[in-house]
Specification:
The complex is a heterodimer of chains A (about 425) and B (about 325). By secondary structure, chain A is α/β, with parallel strands linked by helices. Chain A is built from 12 helices and 18 strands. Chain A folds into 2 domains: about 100 residues, Urease, subunit C, domain 1 (Roll); about 300 residues, Metal-dependent hydrolases (TIM Barrel). In chain A, the strands form 3 sheets. In chain A, strands 1, 2, 3, 4, 5, 16, 17 and 18 form an 8-stranded mixed sheet that branches. In chain A, strands 6-7-8-9-10-13-14-15 form an 8-stranded parallel sheet. The two termini of chain A are about 40 Å apart. By secondary structure, chain B is α/β, with parallel strands linked by helices. Chain B is built from 11 helices and 9 strands.
Chain lengths: ~425, ~325
């Protein structure tokens, strides 16, 4: 009976309404209790972690991660990507199926699960394709994929373009209570686009991706969710218009959820002025007004959760001309720092909301038994130093790629220990800066 | 800097740039320095005809990833007028088809001992990326729809030469602003020097948001024409348009072509510019292109003057830096 005691941290668990200084006791990979109730110390254990000054919360869950394996191992592998997850404080990731080949069969789901098990890092939950071959023509074998362990369905990288197919997918997924994770983009409006269409794209002469390309598709999917009763989860919302549409739909009771990425509440299209391909992603960086709307949406709960859209690309691919460079940036190792710096330190959200957005709600949306420190739950726990100031150094990332626009940034807040099923899988070795 | 032999002196200290990437980030004084230097070179070469040896021993590479005849020839002639050797490198003869990245291509050329790269590319920002990766000077000869600084400078040079000033003049840029690098370089250069700039064309090619950059936007050529000192007729870039931004060429020409009839509504001293190549019958009729108010051929000659000035400012000798005291290296000889 191996016991682990996490002593004296600020325990934040919105699933139980807990936010107090207390101990957390773990036995055999499961949570035993938070203190004895009343904040009294639990006593001794086989291993003790001193957590004074740290936030102790249910392990973070990133529901939008591109692990690139199989097929693009030069960018990332399941092993390197999950190590990056641990270093970022994530105990679980959901991997998106736009691999080569795409994850649209039981065998492919099994491959991911085997590789993840062999890597023995964090939990990997598999998102499988909505459509066979991710071609947007006919449904993948959703029932058999659910049997194999798929937790959600997505053709991300592309929208489910055929409205009829999207409708069928929502209707069909309803019987398994699985969400469809939707990349929202009207391709005719964004075709050839490299960045947000606005004043900056006008000045730079770069083809634009108008906000309308995202908003129109979000509108379509809200209507389809409403008519089918299916669950749409809007991935990487980036526009003020999208936030408004989702807020309105939720008010009407539509079963819709949404995520936002740290880069979308941190950077604007102004970042493209240096033509840096590390600022090229889809959806693109938008305007200051959009950033404000995303932050407001996260603060008021319109946007349920924070996900990174971790999208590694090998260095040489991002060194191409900006129109030939692929879309996407790293996210796992900077998410906590960006969220604390941009949202918590500025007073826009509190720690309970951060934990809800990065652990509890993504777990609920995916229907996975995570995101809580209730007795009997799997002991996935993240320890975060909320005050720690650190400098992002792309040469020291665990990811196989370095495509981050945040290299050299000083951020506040960093995961210092990541515990998966009661085992300490990651510990930050660097001493705090003086 | 007015003597006949200014070019034997070091490059003026006010010019601090290693590259010429765009006009947006130059100061008005830097643009004036470029124009004044071009004037001096035009005089010193007898109207861009004679040769000077100021860049003798230098090698300039024309690295063109996109087709061009006029700009490439103009840069090559400008370099040779200054005594430099030139090498043309175009994608058709390059190793890019073998999968080499453009940065590697440029680095390979650099390793052969060159002094400047004149780069044209269909993608905005490519010269800026090269400048980050190369030690030698990079001159932007057009990066997609972004900027074409020497074209902007030669347009402005031609106007200034004819009118004697830029400040206070009204210049209309007519046509495909959306896809025009010439438009962007003109917008920055002209507004920095105090001209009033009007962008004119259909809303699908001329965004109202340009107003936020301090220019006027109009969709009605006939309404603005009487106010203009200069109109610069920009080519419709069919090759850059994914969908056609107007119903037909005939309709475009009806609304925006510079015809003899429109010319008669304008002021008598209106100047006509066109960066070329022009689509005769679309942006401008032959009658107007060849009339006495057209500066189209002056622009071509002035292109040489401007490019000589740019090449010299980028490659020319720098004044010796003032001696650095030992102490600044921590007392060690480095």
């Amino acid at each position: 009976m191996a016991t682990l005691l996490i002593r004296g941290g600020r325990v934040v668990d919105p699933s139980q309404g807990v936010d107090r200084i207390d101990d957390v006791l773990v036995r055999d990979g499961l949570i035993v209790s938070i203190g004895h109730g009343g904040g009294q110390s639990i006593g001794r254990a086989d291993e003790t972690v001193e957590a004074a000054g740290l936030v102790v919360c249910p392990g973070l869950v990133d529901m939008h991660v591109h692990l690139r394996e199989p097929g693009r191992e030069e960018d990332e592998t399941i092993e390197t990507g999950t190590r990056a997850a641990l270093a970022g404080g994530f105990t679980s990731v959901a991997c998106i199926p736009n691999t080569e080949p795409p994850i649209d069969t039981q065998a492919a789901v099994e491959f991911i699960r085997q590789k993840a098990s062999r890597a023995d890092t964090c939990n990997v939950f598999v998102v499988a394709c909505v459509s066979r071959g991710r071609e947007g023509k006919e449904l993948a074998e959703i029932g058999r994929l659910v049997e194999a362990g798929a937790v959600a369905f997505s053709d991300d990288g592309s929208p489910v373009y055929d409205a009829e197919l999207m409708r069928r997918a929502l209707e069909y997924c309803r019987m398994f209570d699985k969400p469809v994770l939707a990349h929202e983009e009207v391709l005719e409006l964004s075709r050839g686009g490299i960045m947000h269409e606005g004043l900056v794209s006008l000045v730079l002469g770069l083809p634009g991706m108008p906000a309308a390309a995202e908003d129109v598709m979000i509108g379509r999917d809200i209507t389809l969710a409403e008519t089918t009763g299916g669950r749409v989860h809007v991935m990487h919302v980036s526009t003020a218009g999208g936030v408004a549409l989702i807020r309105d739909a939720k008010r009407r009771g539509v079963r819709i959820t949404a995520e936002a990425c740290p880069h979308h509440f941190t950077l604007t299209d102004e970042s493209l002025r240096g033509f840096d391909a590390n600022c090229k992603m889809s959806p693109p960086l938008r305007t200051a007004a959009d950033v404000e709307a995303i932050i407001t949406g996260l603060a008021d709960g319109t946007i349920d959760c924070i996900a990174t859209d971790h999208a590694p690309h090998a260095r040489e691919k991002k060194l191409l001309e900006i129109d030939r460079a692929p879309f996407g940036i790293l996210g796992l190792e900077t998410a906590v720092g960006l969220t604390v710096t941009r949202l918590v330190a500025t007073g826009r959200i509190g720690w309970p909301r951060l934990v809800e957005a990065m652990s509890l709600l993504p777990s609920r949306i995916l229907g996975i038994a995570r995101g809580t420190l209730q007795p009997g739950a799997v002991a996935d726990i993240t320890l975060i130093d909320p005050a720690r100031s650190w400098r992002v150094d792309r040469s020291r990332l665990c990811s196989k790629s370095i495509n981050t626009p945040f290299d050299g940034w000083t951020l506040q807040g960093r995961a210092v220990a990541t515990i998966v099923a009661g085992r300490i899988k990651y510990r930050l070795r660097e001493p705090a800066a003086p | 800097m007015t003597s006949d032999s200014f070019y034997r002196e070091p490059v003026p200290a006010e010019w601090a740039h290693r590259h010429l990437l765009d006009l947006e980030r130059l100061t008005p004084d830097e643009i004036r320095l470029l124009l004044d230097t071009a004037t001096l070179f035009k005089e010193a070469t007898g109207g861009c005809r004679r040769k000077l040896g100021v860049l003798s021993g230098f090698t300039v590479v024309n690295l063109f990833f996109e087709n061009s005849t006029r700009t490439r020839v103009s840069f090559a002639l400008a370099a040779r007028r200054l005594g430099a050797d030139t090498v043309d490198f175009t994608t058709s003869s390059s190793s890019l088809s073998k999968g080499e990245s453009f940065i590697d291509t440029a680095r390979n050329l650099e390793a052969m001992g060159i002094d400047a790269v004149v780069v044209r590319h269909s993608t905005p920002g490519t010269p800026h990326l090269l400048a980050q990766h190369l030690q030698v000077g990079v001159i932007n000869a057009g990066d997609g729809p972004h900027e074409h600084p020497t074209q902007g400078l030669l347009d402005i040079f031609s106007i200034r030469e004819r009118l004697g000033r830029i400040e206070g003049t009204t210049v209309a840029l007519v046509g495909d602003i959306a896809h025009s690098r010439t438009a962007r370089s003109n917008i920055w250069g002209l507004t920095k020097l105090g001209a009033r700039v009007i962008l004119c064309g259909p809303p699908t090619l001329v965004s109202d948001r340009w107003r936020e950059c301090g220019v006027e936007v109009s969709h009605d050529l006939d309404a603005i024409l009487p106010r203009c000192d200069v109109v610069n007729l920009l080519r419709i870039q069919f090759e850059r348009q994914s969908t056609r931004p107007f119903p037909s060429v005939q309709e475009y020409a009806h609304l925006y072509a510079m015809t003899g009839e429109r010319l008669r509504q304008a002021r008598d001293d209106l100047l006509i510019l066109a960066p070329g190549p022009i689509n005769r019958g679309v942006e401008v009729t032959a009658e107007v292109a060849d009339c006495s108010r057209s500066l189209i051929l002056d622009q071509v000659t002035n292109g040489l003057a401007v490019r000589m000035a740019v090449l010299w400012l980028i490659c020319g000798p720098r004044a010796a830096p003032t001696a650095t005291p030992l102490g600044s290296h921590g007392g060690r000889l480095v």
